[in-house]
Amino acid sequence: MIGGTARFFGSVIWTGIRYGVHWKPRVFLSWGIYLLWITLIIFGPRWNLSVLLQFAGSIVGWGGFGAWMGAHVPRLVQLFVFFVLPLCGWLFAHGIRTWIGLKKYQRSIDHLGLKTPTGVTPKVVRVVELENKQRRVLVHAVGLDVAQFRDKKGVLESSFNAIVQEVRVTPSNRQMVEILVSDRELPTLVRFDSHAEALRKPYTFLVGETVDGFITADLCEIHHLLIAGATGGGKSVFFKQALVGLLKSSDHVQLYLLDLKRGVEFRVFGTLKNVRVSKDEATAISMLQRVVEEMERRFRFLEEKGFTEIVPERDGLDRIVVAVDEASVLFTVGKMSKESKAAAEGARELTDKIAKLGRAAGIHLILATQKVVKETIDTRVQTNINAKMCFRVNTIASSMTVLGNKKAADLPDIKGRGIWSVGSNDLVVQVPYLDSDEINEEVSGLTAKFNGEASPLKQKMLQTMAPKKKRSKSNTMSQEEIEQFEAEENQDVD
Fold first, then answer.
1. Sign for the pseudo-dihedral over CA of 55, 61, 66, 71
2. Domain assignments of the chain as residue spans, ordered by start
3. 356 Cβ contact list (under 8 Å, min separation 6)
4. Cα 202–Cα 204–Cα 205 angle in degrees, nearest 5
5. Which one, out of 152, 259, 414, 435, has a CA that is 20 to 30 A from the CA of 337?
6. In this structure, what DSSP letter does residue 462 have?
7. Where are the strands (E) in 183-335, listed by range?
8. CATH, domain range 190-465
């Protein structure tokens, strides 16, 4: 009887130690200060525990208890009573709460009726409370296929009385199954046009649906943005819908888009007169140089006027957005020629300047990357980017690089599901979706706004073309080459 009770208390306390308590620095600090305080009182030469108890007891009529403690109870026992027992009680309270929670989820798993041929049943070993009303249930499932859990998703939701967002094998342990549970289900598809009316404030764009409602972002508040995620997660769609949102909500805005995939991603925006698209490395670096020169010119303007930041309506200057698709192509320094290395380093230096100083000059940076490593986005640049949208990544290390935590690696495999991180606040969102036809339609609708005679721009676009070698039409040119030549000449004139 006594042995069984001791084992029960011991197992509950051990559960509290392993799973119940979040061992953060403040927990260790609190108990450390308490231990130091108790030790000093008990072993102090004058102000020991018995004296304090005798003094306190005299007020309520049991002053003799302090004298008895000092005379009959060894100081080590006093330390045990006033430190070890409270600590064990605290751990037991956390452990019993965790134990009750595990039993609740274990009953839900038992309802599935799953067992191996040898009769082994899955066992819930941990329930982790996440943000945004989500929980991760870890199940030890040796000899069971994760598909058996997925096939019984409806039973799981009925048993948990919650939404099962994903069931998958834990990446670090093939014997463990992770079940992501939420009290509220995010939609798997959010249409851009359903929320376009939220673009009421200038320089805003749509972020997505959270468990607490739909959110937007203001470029004037977040200043710069990093978009990251593995292929197929929704990075490119989010990038383009954010640009559409900025163009729809804003009048005085110029976009300089760096797309080293020959302009494939941003080609649709190139028809607008307030947009410039760079398709190669030389033009991209030239574009960054012109933006930095404009930034320095604006700082001189601010100094002359005594202002602290650019306000387009007051200063007659447009907000400038520099957007880089797949930054790794431009910034990565690897095994390449000296010229390419110098170009990559130059691009990083220019981008770093914009990230550091662009806010006051009304110049903003949006970087997107699929290759999430520290070599892709310089640490100096990341330090100055406050807002991040990270879609699902394949490794914890990638999530740590972008967010400083593993939340992006824990996301369910749902296209458009990401982590919106501003400062220390991380939100799980389902981002708006725009297909290619809808983007074309939106850009066509913006043509009258930016390409008409009454352009809303406050200043001319920056001259960002890289120097070209002059050539002339020759009789040996094909018709296709002549047409290309004339198109380039006309572009230079424009």
1. positive
2. 9-100, 111-182, 190-465
3. 380, 384
4. 145
5. 259
6. P
7. 190-191, 204-210, 213-218, 224-228, 253-259, 275-278, 319-325
8. 3.40.50.300
3-class SS of residue 454: coil
Q: Is 134 helix (H, G, I), strand (E, B) or coil?
A: strand
Per-residue pLDDT of the chain (494 residues; tens, 9 = 90+): 666 777 777 776 776 776 666 677 887 888 788 787 777 666 665 555 555 555 555 544 544 555 555 556 677 777 787 788 888 888 888 777 777 878 888 998 998 999 998 989 999 988 888 876 788 899 999 999 998 998 888 898 898 888 888 888 887 888 999 998 888 778 899 999 999 999 999 999 999 998 878 999 999 999 999 999 988 899 999 999 999 999 999 999 999 999 877 667 788 998 999 999 988 888 888 899 999 999 999 999 999 999 999 999 999 999 999 999 887 777 665 555 677 677 778 888 898 899 999 999 999 999 998 876 666 666 777 788 989 999 999 888 888 888 888 889 888 889 999 999 998 788 889 999 999 999 999 999 999 899 888 888 999 998 866 545 444 444 444 554 445 444 444 444 34
Helix ranges restricted to H, 217-273:
219-222, 235-249
Separation of alpha carbons 160 and 106, rounded Å? 10
- Non-local CB neighbours of 206 within 8 Å, separated by 6+ positions: 192, 195, 196, 198, 199, 214, 216, 241, 242, 245, 431, 432
As a whole number of angstroms, the distance between CA 267 and CA 280 comes to 13
Q: Is 347 exposed, middle or buried (0-12, 13-18, 19+ CB in 10 A)?
A: buried
Sequential DSSP letters for 136-204 = EEEEE-TT--HHHHHTTHHHHHHHHTSEEEEEEEETTEEEEEEEEEESSPPPS-EESTTTGGG--STTE
Q: Give the integer Cα–Cα distance in Å for 281 and 266.
A: 15
Q: Are strands 213-218 and 204-210 parallel, antiparallel or unpaired?
A: antiparallel
Taking a C-beta distance cutoff of 8 angstroms, is the pair 330, 352 a contact?
A: no
Distance, CA of 351 to CA of 344 (rounded, Å):
11
DSSP structural state of residue 331: H
Domain 111-182: CATH class, spelled out: alpha beta
For residue 7, give both structure tokens: 């084992």
